[in-house]
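In practice, a research group might receive sequence data for several interacting partners and want a quick structural hypothesis before committing to experiments. The following worked case mirrors that situation: the sequences arrive first, and a predicted assembly follows.
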Amino acid sequence: MNIGRFAQNLVDSIADAGEKFIDLKMFRGSSTQFLLQLCTDLISHKGVASGLALAREVVNRYSVLSMAEKLTFLMEVNKKMGPNLEEIKVVATKYVKEPSEGNLEKLTQNIQSCRRKLFSRMIMAPNGTQAIVSLREDLLGFLQTNPELRAMDNDLKTLLTSWFNPGFLILKKIDWDTEASILEKIIEYEAVHDIGNWNDLKKRLMADRRCFAYFHPSLEDEPLIFVEVALTKGITGSIQSIISEDSNINDEGNTAIFYSINNCQRGLRKIPLGNFLIKTVVKEIASELPAIKKYSTLSPIPGFAVWLLNELSKQNSEFISEKEREILKIVNEKNWHADTKKCKRLKKPLVKACANYLLNVKKFEKPINSVAKFHFGNGAQLYRINWMGNTSAHGISESFGLMVNYLYDLKQIESNHEAYVQDGTLAISKTIRSVLK
Amino acid sequence: MNIGRFAQNLVDSIADAGEKFIDLKMFRGSSTQFLLQLCTDLISHKGVASGLALAREVVNRYSVLSMAEKLTFLMEVNKKMGPNLEEIKVVATKYVKEPSEGNLEKLTQNIQSCRRKLFSRMIMAPNGTQAIVSLREDLLGFLQTNPELRAMDNDLKTLLTSWFNPGFLILKKIDWDTEASILEKIIEYEAVHDIGNWNDLKKRLMADRRCFAYFHPSLEDEPLIFVEVALTKGITGSIQSIISEDSNINDEGNTAIFYSINNCQRGLRKIPLGNFLIKTVVKEIASELPAIKKYSTLSPIPGFAVWLLNELSKQNSEFISEKEREILKIVNEKNWHADTKKCKRLKKPLVKACANYLLNVKKFEKPINSVAKFHFGNGAQLYRINWMGNTSAHGISESFGLMVNYLYDLKQIESNHEAYVQDGTLAISKTIRSVLK
Amino acid sequence: MNIGRFAQNLVDSIADAGEKFIDLKMFRGSSTQFLLQLCTDLISHKGVASGLALAREVVNRYSVLSMAEKLTFLMEVNKKMGPNLEEIKVVATKYVKEPSEGNLEKLTQNIQSCRRKLFSRMIMAPNGTQAIVSLREDLLGFLQTNPELRAMDNDLKTLLTSWFNPGFLILKKIDWDTEASILEKIIEYEAVHDIGNWNDLKKRLMADRRCFAYFHPSLEDEPLIFVEVALTKGITGSIQSIISEDSNINDEGNTAIFYSINNCQRGLRKIPLGNFLIKTVVKEIASELPAIKKYSTLSPIPGFAVWLLNELSKQNSEFISEKEREILKIVNEKNWHADTKKCKRLKKPLVKACANYLLNVKKFEKPINSVAKFHFGNGAQLYRINWMGNTSAHGISESFGLMVNYLYDLKQIESNHEAYVQDGTLAISKTIRSVLK
Amino acid sequence: MNIGRFAQNLVDSIADAGEKFIDLKMFRGSSTQFLLQLCTDLISHKGVASGLALAREVVNRYSVLSMAEKLTFLMEVNKKMGPNLEEIKVVATKYVKEPSEGNLEKLTQNIQSCRRKLFSRMIMAPNGTQAIVSLREDLLGFLQTNPELRAMDNDLKTLLTSWFNPGFLILKKIDWDTEASILEKIIEYEAVHDIGNWNDLKKRLMADRRCFAYFHPSLEDEPLIFVEVALTKGITGSIQSIISEDSNINDEGNTAIFYSINNCQRGLRKIPLGNFLIKTVVKEIASELPAIKKYSTLSPIPGFAVWLLNELSKQNSEFISEKEREILKIVNEKNWHADTKKCKRLKKPLVKACANYLLNVKKFEKPINSVAKFHFGNGAQLYRINWMGNTSAHGISESFGLMVNYLYDLKQIESNHEAYVQDGTLAISKTIRSVLK
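A structural hypothesis for the assembly, expressed as tokens:
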């Protein structure tokens, strides 16, 4: 039994002991009302052991609610355990009158919502960390239709950012000697390039591949984010050469291709986990395999097809000339990609349009394409746009078969990153530069 | 190499990579000014990798400051990176005018001091957790003479309470198969009953003993708090029978005596770690050793001698009668404890005075004696006051040789705890009740 | 990296160092002659490091031989490195003249074949243990057509019995947290009831199942033998209820059914590994799951159909009456098992014939059925013969659908075992006794 | 609980189960007679589980015998379970008449003594491996006065050599993170240069040191042999600079000095364990610390003083000239080593005599000095004899303060080894060559 589970079992035992105290008969009403009452008790309660039993009770009872009940419950918590605006007003007024450190501290204490306290106590329950992450997943699902829950999500985000501090994360190598229970999750969570079955997975863990994942000590069997790497000769531009063909163990590989990065926990959305991952893995590979000299991604371009079709439907496009538009319209034709002639015509303007999309189409002054934004933010360079990089049906429909290499050049990664952060400069290769001309 | 160190090394490597970017020549002035400038950069900097290098730089440079420089530095950080009272006033005023959720969020964001951001970034450095704990130890040392630092300590306390959430702590059994590097720290941190050397330690880890410690995943070789347990026949009242004599492996032990609880990290003072420890260890022993039926502490009474001597020096004492005072004065005589007659006279009134001290001398409505407060708060019962429980010089001078058993009765622990929390009731045994009559 | 591989890598490094010394150019001739020359060198050589390099060379070169070359090579080794009959005659003659301890020692030393020395040195190579086990697998394959190799196999068997001493074996629990590389082998080695794929495997490792395997420290990722257990309510007689249906987690299981035992290494045939396994697993389950009160197998009856058809074809059978024979002939009809009437007629005489087969058909005074012999030898009782215990095509053709429960009754296991060893008594239940009447 | 102990406990449980069967009342007579009867039962018994219980009984009862009883018991086993000389004579006669493979196999089987069977069964007991090693330690102690036990020791040696095959040994790094229970044994087993206490040990495990030990999987907490290494600048000639002074962490170390090699288990004498150790550790250090370029021992010269004093007392010495003898006699004077003038005169002839002792004084054509023989046999070169290499009282009395460096030059280690094995050539440095002139 590993130490984590040992600890978990103990927490369970203490909760058992505490349970005897809670008089469950006292609670009345519907299951959400009941749960709310338990929550109120949990945050008002000053005790430790009974608190633990209550925390477990809350976590367990929440987990069996229907989605409708969960929404009702979260709306109630959001409202009832949110900050008391009137009380805060009183303290804030005092502060405004006399803006001292002392009054600030009082204000700070008053401003803390009970929701935070609730979550901070729930996480102490057996499997509490998992429960909180799941709760946030539910919450994120409700946000769009219930924007008032955003306040509660802010609370959760603040707490999770602290609890999932990068200093606490643990990097593990995933290979064929990894526990099946974790590998099963890798299969499940792979969303970029599906892993069909265990044989497929085994191929991705062979000697010419690497896979690394981040874990949190309190969620020990749950990968948070993982990256798949292929060791190739040169910077590969075709995803099919990596995932479809028989894996060729390539003893002469000199390049590490990051071809799939996956966030596993929907409940941790917007909690920064991935920033370190690529750089950490680069260091790890560099120390294990001195023969690897280059590091690059092979990345999808989600949104490119949608954007281009939209541009083509407009009267004018700031990114596409009339001449280009005429050619690009070919993408509306059926099976254009099977027609060599059409492909030949399309190639140049399509790649150029893609470069424009990645570099010049922005939102809040950052690239609108999330993958591009992520890698530029990490200090990578837009290195190459690959024609027919992904010939699968999904690849054709998502980005007309194009895929992108973002290069992680260890010598320039920091200056690229700085230039990006300071004045939004996007690092591009000579190849890309010539594409844009 | 264990996984934690592996991760640490990687963090180091990334920091190395980032370092190239930081232009250390840009910094001028004294070492504290230099450090302050680095800190400003660390919190303003939006980057990740360079931020990590900066974090390491800040952590390393802080660690080599003299105590005087540390104080200067902390005072500066406290002031410069504290909340901006005027800015907050503006936002608070807006809120007072219109106390909406939206305005509250703005207020909340403004209220966050840069100090918190600084600490949250420092902890990402290699060994950052250890560095933050050390920094707080320094800070606590400065508090008394520099009370204005309390604001900063509140920030740190909030962060540490979140980072050291009980759900993240790991319980480990400490025995003779534990790494020497950790055992060495057990010797060092034992403050209640000194461990003289490794033979002494080995005795405390033999088959009739148990030792458990809490660890944090990011401080993996550093025990946070540990408890030493002796398995005895009946509830022992003499600490010498446990620590001075040759350890007798007692196969018929039916009682677990918690005879030493030690907080290891001064930098974690007031961060609640110990509340779970005893109950967790009780559960652990119960499952390993079904023959153990009773759980009790054998605890010191720090402050009793000081308090009693003070009471005796007063004209009137609400806790001691005139008749008792006459006898109790014997404790002022040299070597009274070696005189059987004096002892015989002293015993009854001294034990009674001690019971009064533990139960009736209060501060903020709780027992003034911190050990008593801790165990009552945990749901224990004051079970027995032991005459000549600690005959060492220290025991005589601290508490006139008295020691206390606090009983952890699994059936009453929760109700005791509740009664204590709800209305301050202190659980006492029949024996103690009769002492007080 | 685990310690075993660490050690293996080191062995490899030393072999590398030694290799420089071996002058491979000196060797001439065909690959088997070459290999023989290396072997001669390996056993004559007094060195250690060069010996290690030689051992690796021998192991590697053997592994790439064709089967025909392997046979040639083993025949040569058998002959050339076998005992020198004439030399031994000289020493034996001396002993016969003067049968002293001294002369016996000389005889003993002379009698040791060079083959043993060769194998003892080969096993020191990197992965040497695996290599020797594989070599024996080859050897066993050649035995039938080349009975002279039996002498060599006797040498190997003696050595392997010593190296795989039960005291060195390690029992490991196999579950869904086991490394995929080991689970893959479980799928591969399962020969009794095929595991179709990973989902099928996962079902067999769920909460109502157990799986245990023996490992050898020098073959750490290779299970030697494993057993699969189902926790059921009562003694199940149908294998389909265990392996075909959806696994029902049965919290009220009171019986452990051993439904599959597999030897994994053909090269370890006749090296006793399994004798301890069942009893060890019984103890392990008993300590983990106190609710489990009964232990039984659900075992196949290989050979029963063949035997019965043969008996039916004879004029007279000592085990089957004329009346029974008439009914039993039904088994020659197509699809008899789908015909309720035929089944009804068959059941009684078929079960009786099976009991006779298991108990009374013997070879060297032991049951001819190897599964029966194994369990009787372990102290088990023939508990029940199950009609339609295995309704798969294989089950019908192997044993007309019958399966057997052998009961491991902890109280009788030793006396059964003793009675079996002492005078060949087979333990049977009342049910079986009544079947035989 | 580690897996080894887990396995051990299970073995214990099975033995418990078997115990019920053994009718201990049947045994009569003295404890050694009783034990002998148990042994007879153990080897005749065909059972497994009862056999295990018997094995445990034998192991336990043997361990509590007095030394006198142990001797009696071993003498009896030696005699009664030794080979049956008359029976063997019969089979040997048959073989002599017809020296066929078939008759040889019969002879081989008859020749196997029951003693081997006994030990092979005893090792299956819980802690059986430890028990057999201890028994051999006892046996070795009795050998000198009871030479007839040598036959039995030969049996044991053969078995232990197989069980402790180098392919099964595991190398572990010993450092300050090692379990205290193992470190305690390092302190205990260090026989070359005493480790005074835990602080002393810690010094020897600091960053500028290395320590490695071999373990056997069935004796997992017992080091078999270990080596201590210091990382120094250049080839140190003074042991005091390594063990007496404050350890100076030497970041610029370019040399690994093997300054202490210790066999831990007296019961494994003459079982080859150390041959691989040094070369394995050299490889390990080379891969961890590329800065280390040279590997050398700093070794004692046990027997040198005794030999020299003896030579000086003879009329003629083939190793010492008359002139040298005159000077060398100084070593008979008290405190000669504190007298600079005497030292100055002695240095040259003493070093020369030592070189002669190490290189030219032989037994069975090998150096009589066991340390020299060990390192020459490993392929090392006699590199330097160090004046005042060990100034401790022990060093002065054992070898007049001299110590020796044996150099492990990776490029020459194999050729040295070969030359030594083939024709007894001893590798020496230029320095030594010039000393001998």
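Before designing any experiment, note the following. Chains A and D do not touch (no CB pair under 8 Å). The radius of gyration of chain A is 26 Å.
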